[in-house]
């Protein structure tokens, strides 16, 4: 293996570590080694380099009576490596608007923005199956920096008059592209929930995780009501 290829491979492994920690929150060296399918010695070298660069930090975690095990997580600098669609000017503009027009009008402005976004999403999602539309929604959110993914969800048959459980999916966003704005104006997250519901008008959308509340990711349950029994 030449030096250039080795350097590229190391950079790829380090990026994979950062992505894994962004998705999972924390992990130890053994878990990361198994995930990347490389030796524990190699993973420790990568972790040492990433920590030296200030991208990750470790915490001691006690397991039984043995020595504490290091658990790694992203540092604030590491968090900044992921896409964000906000900037200081946008946040400053929103703050100026809030001071100028008042909180009530500010809420109306933000709601109108999300309504426009919902219309854009709905037109781009089309009229295919729910799975196709959720898949397309994930692609759109990924392009905007949200690190989104989805999984089918098999819930219980909550409605006894239904012939089968509703078709359901979990939409997860590991990275919030407007995190700084959401921290300052948490109401935008409420409008975001409304936006998903408007973009999928034949579905029920429920928030199940919320980064603003200190959780590691934002999550939504998307359900298409099932048919009723006759």
TrEMBL record:
<dbReference type="InterPro" id="IPR036388">
    <property type="entry name" value="WH-like_DNA-bd_sf"/>
</dbReference>
<dbReference type="InterPro" id="IPR036390">
    <property type="entry name" value="WH_DNA-bd_sf"/>
</dbReference>
<protein>
    <submittedName>
        <fullName>Iron-sulfur cluster biosynthesis transcriptional regulator SufR</fullName>
    </submittedName>
</protein>
<dbReference type="InterPro" id="IPR013196">
    <property type="entry name" value="HTH_11"/>
</dbReference>
<dbReference type="InterPro" id="IPR011991">
    <property type="entry name" value="ArsR-like_HTH"/>
</dbReference>
<dbReference type="Pfam" id="PF08279">
    <property type="entry name" value="HTH_11"/>
</dbReference>
<dbReference type="InterPro" id="IPR014075">
    <property type="entry name" value="SUF_FeS_clus_asmb_SufR_cyano"/>
</dbReference>
<feature type="domain" description="Helix-turn-helix type 11">
    <location>
        <begin position="15"/>
        <end position="55"/>
    </location>
</feature>
């Amino acid at each position: 293996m030449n030096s250039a290829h080795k350097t590229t491979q190391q950079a790829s492994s380090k990026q994979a570590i950062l992505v894994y920690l962004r998705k999972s929150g924390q992990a130890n060296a053994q878990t990361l080694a198994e995930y990347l399918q490389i030796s524990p010695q190699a993973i420790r070298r990568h972790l040492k380099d990433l920590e030296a660069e200030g991208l990750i930090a470790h915490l001691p975690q006690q397991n039984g009576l043995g020595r504490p095990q290091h658990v790694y997580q992203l540092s604030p600098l590491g968090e900044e490596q992921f896409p964000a669609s906000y900037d200081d000017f946008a946040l400053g503009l929103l703050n100026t608007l809030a001071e100028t027009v008042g909180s009530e009008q500010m809420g109306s402005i933000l709601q109108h923005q999300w309504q426009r976004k919902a219309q854009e999403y709905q037109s781009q999602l089309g009229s295919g199956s729910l799975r196709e539309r959720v898949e397309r929604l994930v692609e759109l959110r990924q392009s905007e920096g949200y690190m989104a993914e989805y999984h089918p969800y098999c819930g219980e048959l909550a409605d006894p008059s239904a012939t089968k459980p509703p078709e359901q999916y979990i939409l997860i966003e590991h990275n919030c592209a407007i995190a700084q704005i959401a921290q300052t104006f948490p109401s935008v997250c409420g409008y975001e929930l409304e936006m998903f519901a408007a973009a999928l008008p034949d579905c029920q959308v429920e928030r199940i995780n919320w980064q603003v509340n200190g959780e590691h990711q934002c999550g939504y349950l998307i359900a298409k009501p099932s048919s009723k029994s006759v």
